[in-house]
Amino acid sequence: MSQPVRVLLVEDDENLRTAVQAELTAGGFAVVEAADLAGTDAELRRSDFGCVVLDRMLPDGDALDYVRRRRLAGWNARVLFLTARDRAADRVDGFTHGGDDYVVKPFSMAELTARVRSLCRPGGSRPPVLRFADLEIDCARRETRRAGVLLTLSGREFSVLEYLAVHPEQAVSRSDLIEHCWDESADPMSNVVDAVVKRLRRKLREPNLIHAVRGHGYRLGFADPAS
């Protein structure tokens, strides 16, 4: 039997750290915890990790600077920044200075687990820019262009489009979209997904790239499948 992938979780909020640790452990990872950069150094000296989940602002410094210094020294571990900093410039900094992914608080535990799993997969990290047809989604800057034209999307619209683009030509259920793009208080039986998709279709213009999948959800693709 293969050993579980080891993940180093660095978070100074004890309650959040405990919750994330429980979720990642339930997802099949072997989780080691640290509360600051000194603890991170100590754990990295002891062992290698498939992924390091780092809170951005820690009691003894900014994890961004820490990762940048380690990258310059040849460190190649996968890094996911976990942070309340949600400006486009912060995301760009996260990717520019050595991060492989960037999750903003508050977040879906299921999405965090999925992103950690993706990073731990051999060769697995999501590209910073997703492309489909003439659609370009810059995940770091949270900008979307179609045929080179910058679109104005709300945060929720961007999240839904981004998730569909991560699964091109696949049917994505409304429940999956709720789980990954809304917080836990959202009602999966409500029409919130349909309303966001309707606005997205209007902003993306023709030809339509987001198609309804009867009885299931939506699909990012070129044309409706044959009935």
UniProtKB/TrEMBL annotation:
Q: Which residues bind DNA?
A: 127-222
Query: Residue ranges of the OmpR/PhoB-type domain?
Result: 127-222
InterPro entries, per the entry = CheY-like_superfamily, OmpR/PhoB-type_DNA-bd, Sig_transdc_resp-reg_C-effctor, Sig_transdc_resp-reg_receiver, WalR-like, WH-like_DNA-bd_sf
Positions bearing 4-aspartylphosphate: 55
Task: Report keywords, A-Z.
Answer: DNA-binding, Phosphoprotein
What is the protein name given in its UniProt record?
A: Response regulator transcription factor
Q: Which Gene3D superfamilies did the record assign?
A: 3.40.50.2300, 6.10.250.690, Winged helix-like DNA-binding domain superfamily/Winged helix DNA-binding domain (1.10.10.10)
What are the residue boundaries of the Response regulatory domain, all occurrences included?
Answer: 6-120
Q: Which domain of life is it from?
A: Bacteria
